Amino acid sequence: MDIREEFLRLQEIPDFESKISDERVKATGDKLEVLQINVGRLCNLACKHCHVEAGPLRTEVMSREVMEACLKVYKEQNFSTIDITGGAPEMNPHFRWFVEEASKISSHVIVRTNLTIMLEEGYGDLPQFYADHKINVVCSLPYYRAKDADRMRGQGSFDGSIKVIKKLNEAGYGIKPDLKLDMVYNPGGAFFPPAQDAIEKEYKAKLGAEFGIVFNNLYTITNNPIGRFGSFLVRSGNMKGYMNKLYAAFNGRTLTNMMCRSQLSVAWDGSLYDCDFNQAIGIQISTKESIFDLVGKKYKKRRICFDKHCYACTAGQGSSCGGSTEGE
Ligand code: SF4
Ligand code: SF4
Hints:
This protein is an alpha/beta fold and 328 residues long. 32% of the residues lie in helices and 10% in strands. The chain has helices at residues 3-9, 64-76, 95-105, 126-132, 146-153, 157-170, 196-211, 227-235, 239-248, 276-281, 291-294, and strands at residues 34-38, 81-85, 109-113, 136-140, 181-185, 218-220, 263-266, 272-273. The structure holds iron/sulfur cluster (2 copies). Residues 43, 45-47, 50, 52, 54-55, 86-88, 114 line the site of one iron/sulfur cluster.
């Protein structure tokens, strides 16, 4: 399904760029902070809301050559964070090598995990592997109640996730100051996330009382109307309603902190995007360069490519891979 064609039909919603009056905000900032690397679309799950449409049958997997180019560009352009995502990034055959190399050159390496992969054969030692390399583990747990979480992730996924979080806690995650365990919450449908602080407190109280689990921060992410979630909206006749809701909730105070202003997103084949959402929807960076083209080059500001899905980043409290963005 071509979601961008659906956006064209939404005539009543103005182009996103028309909402940005400051020309500087339409481009990346003075320096990039996060190199987000999507190492492939292979995943052990196939969640209903997945914006990258990952799953067990996907074959797109990042090669070592692309990873090596990522490491070079990270160093040369002086990024501060390596953010490894997927799919289930752990399923990439070069994953452990890449994490080891990344942690040699960066003091902040994030791995985004769906947790349940660590229950599969060959992945059970990952909590200790992550601890050994001081990785900031960011896990997605759709809700703190099994019924709601399983509806999004599949039967039994919640209990599995809890088991793995306990293992991460045993390895020191959420307890030792240098072992950060963060969680991501995104809504189970066409509605907005609650206030980040409030839902974080709720998660901490419920998961602590029921399972003895601890973690650091919870980030809320607004569902972006692309990928499987976008297709669901179109099929169910809810795209127009959801887009109107996003548009009505537009908050100009979130613009300067849009994650695309300080990030570069690399796809499994080395192509480059302003963010993971643009990657999922196939909008490459304006210069169309690949990660190989950037090796040996200095950072240059670039114009960001927007479309109507960008309203998901500026609705209400704002949304990014690092949670809400308003007024930071
Ligand atoms: S949402 Fe995450 S865990 Fe679910 S299919 Fe997509 S990449 Fe896999
Ligand atoms: S979807 Fe991507 S390009 Fe659009 S505002 Fe959000 S981060 Fe920026």
